Write a sequence for this structure.
């Protein structure tokens, strides 16, 4: 493929001249690596989030797509160690604690604390040791939480991150086309990790955390990224879980995935199917996600 007239990606339309600029940047700055190429292009094209941060993650995904379509070439990745996800070292800080078995009211008030430098290592260790998928460094927009009891005990960990690029059941429920999805996909947030620590056994805690997260996350997301999400999604491994806590928190089950990866655009079936759950954050979420113009920066469920 030598030429493209225009393309819409991640909510922005790029002209043929801008695509040619990307191809030239990929050639001229090949020695800098993909990350720096992405940052440079974002600066040139003023491709930023509402809070002013560069959309270098989205730009990198676009560059990789253009590479896969034969439009441009990208430098090879430079591996500074063994390939694959790096393991997270663990120590006694994440060892099992005394069992917590009580009524949920005894744990009030639950506190949702954003992960920062003070608790980041412990969050990573907990996910690595006790979540069946382990810990992987999130890319793009994301927020991490630890949930604490009123006494300061850590009860759970949550990771919210970028959504799946394409899921037939979700996309059918929304009713959008490919251009609308590319424009407004950022208004969906994925619950990539949800861990109730194994020594915490409190009836109704998981569904209560999910319900409260649905109220807390939009505010924090808007504060960090300048816009409010419209829909939450998650994928539940049906071989391990039934999704009971999501159902109890009023999430909607849409069916199962086709078995392709979250960002797969090449139709390779390489994963076991997972059950799709969604939670609308606005009563007109479907209509807004299909809008020609991006939704308003801040919207309320009561609108």
């Amino acid at each position: 493929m030598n030429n493209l007239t225009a393309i819409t990606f991640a909510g922005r339309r790029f002209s043929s001249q801008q695509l040619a600029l990307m191809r030239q940047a990929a050639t001229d700055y090949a020695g800098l690596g993909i990350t720096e190429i992405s940052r440079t292009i974002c600066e040139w094209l003023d491709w930023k989030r509402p809070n002013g941060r560069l959309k270098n993650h989205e730009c990198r995904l676009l560059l990789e797509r253009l590479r896969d379509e034969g439009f441009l070439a990208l430098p090879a990745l430079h591996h500074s160690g063994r390939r694959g996800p790096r393991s997270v070292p663990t120590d006694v800080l994440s060892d099992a604690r005394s069992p917590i078995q009580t009524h949920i009211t005894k744990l009030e008030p639950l506190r949702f604390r954003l992960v920062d430098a003070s608790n980041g290592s412990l969050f990573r260790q907990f996910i690595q040791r006790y979540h069946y998928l382990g810990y992987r460094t999130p890319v793009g927009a994301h927020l991490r939480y630890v949930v604490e009891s009123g006494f300061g005990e850590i009860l759970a960990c949550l990771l919210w991150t970028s959504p799946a690029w394409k899921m037939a059941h979700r996309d059918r429920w929304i009713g959008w086309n490919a251009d609308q999805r590319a424009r407004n996909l950022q208004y969906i947030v994925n619950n990539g990790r949800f861990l109730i620590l194994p020594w915490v056994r409190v009836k109704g805690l998981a569904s209560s955390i999910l319900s409260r997260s649905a109220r807390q996350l939009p505010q924090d997301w808007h504060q960090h990224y300048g816009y409010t999400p419209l829909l939450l999604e998650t994928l539940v491994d049906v071989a391990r879980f039934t999704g009971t806590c999501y159902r109890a928190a009023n999430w909607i089950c849409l069916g199962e995935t086709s078995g392709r990866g979250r960002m797969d655009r090449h139709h390779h079936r390489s994963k076991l199917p997972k059950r799709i759950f969604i939670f609308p954050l606005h009563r007109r979420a479907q209509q807004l996600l299909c809008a020609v113009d991006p939704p308003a920066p801040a919207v309320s469920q009561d609108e």
Notes: The chain has a mean pLDDT of 86. DSSP finds nine helices and nine strands in the chain.
